[in-house]
Amino acid sequence: MTASTSARVEPVGTGSTPVLAARTRGLRKVYGRTVAVDRVDLDVPEGAVLGMLGPNGSGKTTTIRMLLGLVRPTEGEVELLGEALPDGVGDALPHVGALVEGPGFHPFLSGRENLRRAAAFEPLLATGSVRQAVEDALERVGLGAAAHRRYRGYSLGMKQRLGLAAALLVPRRLIVLDEPTNGLDPAGTREVRGVIADLHAAGSTVLVSSHLLSEIEATCTHVAVLHRGTVVAQGELAELLQSDSSSLLVTTPDVEQALTALRAGRISARPFTADDGDGGVRVELIGTTAPVVLEALVRAGVAVHEARRHRTGLEDLFARLTEAEEAEHNLSAVDTIEEGTR
Predict the structure, then answer these.
(1) CA 226, CA 239: separation in Å to the nearest integer?
(2) What separation, in Å, do the N-terminal and C-terminal C-alpha atoms of the chain show?
(3) Where does the ABC transporter domain lie (predicted)?
(4) Is residue 80 within 8 Å of 22, Cβ to Cβ?
(5) Are the CB atoms for 292 and 247 separated by under 8 Å?
C-alpha cells in the first residue's frame, strides 16, 4: 500500500462545540424476541479515529448497519454527517466509504474490472476520472500487481484489500471499516494501519470495528466498547485508560525509606523496577490519593524523582468492562442473532 495523495477533507462546523460525524440516540434493534442492540447512544467525533470494540455478538455490525441505513432501527435516532436517517441517506452516503463484513464482487471479473464497475456508480466521481481513481485506489491498497487477476482467485486478504479500495475511490468525510484486517498477514495489517493514519491526517473521520485490542490501541484516538448490545464505555482512548488507573508509580532511589513511610501511613505500596532500570514504589490508590502519597513521602525526606499514574492497557480496561457480565450470562442471545444474519 502506498501513502495517501487524496485531498484533505475539511471539517464542517466552527466554534468550540464538538462536531459529530455520526450520532445515535436510543438506538434499538429487535429480531423477534431477541434484542440485538439495546438503546445505544454513540457519538463519533468528526476527525477522530473511533474504534468500536466488543466481543463477537456484542452488536457492533448491527449498529454499523443501522448507522449506514442498511437496516432500519426498531427504535431510536440516527444522524449521519448531519443528516437524519432514513430521509437524509441520499445526501449523506456519497460522502461515506464503507467496508462492512465481507466485500461482494463479481467472481468472474478481475479486481480492476470490479473496481471500475464500483467507480461508475460513484456520484462524486466524474466519468473522465474513473480510470485514474481506480488505479490510484488499487496502488493504495497494494493490489496494483494483482489487479488483472479474477476475483474468484483472490485470497481472503486480497478480497479485503479490494473492498477497502472501493471505499477509498474518492475522498470521504467518513470511512467505516468493519474488521478491515480480517485475513491479512502482519505486513498487510501494518499497511492498513498506515492507510487509517493517512485518512486521519487528511481530515477524514474513521470508524473501525474490531475485536483486536492491539489494533484499536495502535490506530484509534477514541473508543466505544460494546457488550451485549449496549455501549458500556466511550470517549477519548487516552482519557479512558487514564481514568481506569488505580496506582501511582513513584521513581525514587530511597525505595526502602519510601516503603517504610507509606506503610506507616497505612498506604499500600510495593517496589517496582522500570524497563530503563530506574526503580521506585508502586502505590495502590485505594482509600488514598496521589497528593496524600506525595505529602507522606516528602515529609519523610524521601527523594521523589518522578510520580506518574500507571497507564492501564486497553486489554485491562476491556476485561474490567466486560468479563463480569460475560461470566454471569456466558453466551448472550445476541451471539446467535448476529451470527445468523451474516
Answers:
(1) 17
(2) 29
(3) 22-253
(4) yes
(5) no
> Which residues sit opposite 30 in a β-bridge?
35
Domain boundary among 237, 271, 294: 237
Residue 259 and residue 275: Cα distance in Å, rounded?
A: 21
Query: What is d(CA 217, CA 227) in angstroms, rounded to the nearest whole number?
Result: 18
Which is it for the CA torsion 258, 263, 265, 266, positive or negative?
Answer: positive
Total number of domains in the chain: 2
pLDDT tens digit sequence for 211-269: 888 888 889 999 998 988 888 888 898 888 776 556 889 999 999 999 999 988 878 78
Domain that holds residue 53: 20-237
| Same-domain status, 137 and 154 | yes
> 133 and 108, same structural domain?
yes
Tens-place pLDDT, residues 171-203? 999 999 998 888 788 888 888 888 899 899 999
Sole residue written with cell 423477534: 32
The Cα-based distances of 298 to 205, 259, 267, 289 in angstroms read 46, 13, 14, 15
Residues 144, 283 within the same domain:
no
100 shares a domain with 161: yes
Q: Are strands 75-80 and 20-31 parallel, antiparallel or unpaired?
A: antiparallel
Note the pTM of the prediction, 2 decimals: 0.73
Half-sphere exposure of 4 (CA within 13 A, CB side): 24
Cβ within 8 Å of residue 186, ≥6 positions away: none
Rounded Cα distance, 196 and 177, in Å: 10
Asked if residue 303 and residue 185 are part of one domain, the reply reads no
The x, y and z cell numbers of residue 146, run together, are: 494483482
CATH number at residue 267: 3.30.70.100
